[in-house]
Amino acid sequence: QMLKEGNRSILSYLFVTVSLFSSMITSIYASTREKDMTWAILKISYDPITNTAEGGICGSAFFLKEQIFISAHHCFNDSVFIPNKNFPKVKVFLVNNRGYIINDIRIKKLVPEYDLAIGEVIQYDNNVSVYSFANDFNVGDSVYNIGFPTDESLIDYRIKIEKGHLFLENIILKEFQQDGKVEDILRITVNANDVKLDNKLMIKLSHTSKLGFSGGPCLLKSSDKVIGMMSMVIPSEIYPKKPAMAVRISDILQFLVTK
Q: What is the reported pLDDT for 17?
């Protein structure tokens, strides 16, 4: 009888241990998957004759449908597909912090009046995860945004130029997060070189931002749902603290409707 009770105790212990381990794995997987959902736009200009290249991050992006992603217009537009000076060719990729690479992307629609670019992945990629979104949020809500600042995210990458084409073999990236609150929802007019907004309702955040975060998601901390896309920083002559602004997801969704 004591042996049977002992076996039962051991089995119970093993069951609890396995259950806890399984829960940990599920939690780690979910957390990792969540972090993989934001992508960097990587542009590499190259010369197949001299076998030289130069590249960098243009901004961030995220998916709202399996093959449809969005970014900021000032990061992802026709000029991205023009090679840098002294280079005849260019290749643009989506890459994330786990080293996943999406090779074939293109512009589907440009909406500069909302600083919005809608992109398309030509072939379905099972490494893509789609964000959920929330239209309802309030001033004072805690938020965070994810992106790839241009001056510190790109750690290393390896390319190969063969028969006139460039191949990105691997990449090491670091993803960053900023935290803050929804400080206001206000109408704003901006006439900058790269962003032009005319009396558009925008989300004003309590924190500033930096190059590379534009195009990434702004999410509610309470639900991890997207409420907007990071756009620009208000110039210091208007707001000395240079708060970051996000385009509301409700304004973005109207341009994703398939007609």
A: 38
Tokens, residue 24: 């940990």
Q: What is the 3-state secondary structure (H, E, C) of 33-62?
A: HHHCCEEEEEEEEEECCCCEEEEEEEEEEE
Give buried/exposed letters for 24-59 (b at 16+ CB in 10 A, else e). Answer: eeeeeeeeeeeebbbbbbbbbbbbbeeeebebbbbb
User: How far is residue 204's CA from residue 248's CA, in Å, rounded to a whole number?
Assistant: 10
What is the Cα gyration radius of the chain?
Answer: 22
| Residue 258: Cβ-neighbour burial (10 angstroms; 0-12, 13-18, 19+) | exposed
What secondary structure letter does DSSP report for 135?
S
Q: Given pLDDT bands bounded at 50, 70 and 90, which one contains residue 257?
A: confident
- For the chain, strand residue ranges (E) read 38-47, 52-65, 68-72, 89-95, 101-102, 105-111, 116-121, 142-147, 154-162, 165-173, 176-191, 196-205, 217-220, 226-233, 244-248
pTM of the model: 0.84
Residue 165: phi and psi, rounded to 5, are: -120, 150
Q: Tens of pLDDT along 93-140?
A: 999 999 999 999 999 999 999 999 999 999 888 889 999 999 999 999
d(CA 240, CA 186): 17
Give 184: exposed, middle or buried? Use CB within 10 Å, 0-12, 13-18, 19+. middle
Nearest C-alpha neighbor of 57 from the set 172, 166, 153 = 153
Longest dimension (CA), the chain: 84
Q: Which of 182, 215, 186 is nearest to 199 (CA)?
A: 186
Q: What pLDDT is stored for residue 258 in this prediction?
A: 60
